[in-house]
Amino acid sequence: MPMELALDLMEGSRPLIVDSAVITAINTRMVTRDDFLQVGR
């Protein structure tokens, strides 16, 4: 299977996977407010 086809097939599920991973990281406190920088204030 060509790489482009594999990436095209994967594209539809990517937002669900990424959203789930981000929400899990926040809910389990793997990521906290201290992990981010505030810029411009």
Task: Report what the structure shows.
- By secondary structure, the protein is an all-alpha fold.
- Helices cover 56% and strands 0% of the residues.
- It contains 2 helices and no strands.
- It has helices at residues 3-11, 14-27.
- It is elongated, with a radius of gyration of 16 Å.
Q: Which helices and strands appear, and what pairs or packs with what?
A:
Blueprint: H1 3-11, H2 14-27
What is the mean predicted local confidence, pLDDT? 89
Question: How many β-strand stretches?
Answer: 0
* Biggest β-sheet strands, sense, barrel: none
Give the overall shape.
elongated
Distance between the termini: 49 Å
Rg from Cα: 16 Å
Poorly predicted regions are none
* Helix/strand structural class: mainly alpha
Question: How do you describe this structure in short?
Answer:
The chain is mainly alpha-helical and 41 residues long.
Write a concise keyword list for the protein shown above:
2 helices, single chain, 41 residues, mainly alpha
